[in-house]
């Protein structure tokens, strides 16, 4: 695995601490832990996204979704095993997990549904009006303002 030194980049930047932490965590992440449970991230609209996680064997009571500032944490608690028989092969993982997603600014968590072993989490970007671009009217310098006539 290659190691990149990003310190020259951050010597001349201010306020990019979050980006630095994201890059460091992406480079030092545990690959085995990052593969369970499998998930998809899709763009469903101009400002809408959906995370779909395969959580076979987990019910709504076993899952917890926590949205904090710029992060989403999905936790699954393993059920106690009920030994009904002897397994010859066990391919369905039922282990506990914690999956973290870093969210961009103004991304809000909408709703979550559990359907057929798939957990769907809808996200939407809601940019405040004050942050949206606006058009500024340009007035010509030296132009006389239009006078309105009033009836006397």
Estimated radius of gyration: 25 Å
- Beta content: 25-35%
Widest sheet: strand ordering: 1-2-7-6
Helix fraction? 10-25%
Shape: elongated
Mean pLDDT over the full residue set:
80
Counting H and I runs of at least 4 residues, what is the number of helices? 2
Low-pLDDT sequence parts: none
Helix-strand makeup class: mainly beta
Give the biggest beta sheet. 4 strands, antiparallel
What's the total count of β strands?
A: 7
Helix/strand order, N-terminal first: HHEEEEEEE
End-to-end separation in angstroms reads 86 Å
Outline the structure in words:
This protein is mostly beta strands and 152 residues long. Helix content is 11%, strand content 32%. The strands form two sheets. A four-stranded antiparallel β-sheet has the order 1-2-7-6, with no helix packed on it. Strands 3-4-5 form a three-stranded antiparallel β-sheet, with no helix packed on it. A hairpin with a 2-residue loop joins strand 6 and strand 7. The longest helix is centred in the first third of the chain and has 11 residues. The model has no long low-confidence stretch (mean pLDDT 80).
């Amino acid at each position: 695995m290659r190691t990149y030194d990003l310190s020259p980049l951050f010597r001349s930047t201010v306020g990019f601490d979050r980006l630095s932490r994201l890059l460091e965590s992406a480079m030092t992440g545990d690959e085995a832990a990052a593969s369970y449970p499998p998930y998809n991230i899709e763009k469903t609209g101009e400002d809408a996204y959906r995370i779909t996680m395969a959580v076979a064997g987990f019910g709504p009571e076993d899952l917890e979704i926590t949205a904090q500032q710029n992060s989403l944490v999905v936790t699954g608690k393993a059920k106690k095993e009920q030994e009904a028989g002897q397994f010859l092969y066990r391919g369905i993982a039922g282990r506990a997990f914690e999956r973290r997603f870093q969210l961009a600014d103004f991304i809000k968590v909408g709703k979550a549904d559990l359907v057929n072993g798939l957990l769907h989490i809808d996200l939407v970007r809601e940019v405040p009006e004050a942050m949206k671009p606006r058009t500024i009217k340009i007035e010509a310098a030296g132009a006389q303002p239009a006078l309105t006539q009033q009836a006397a």
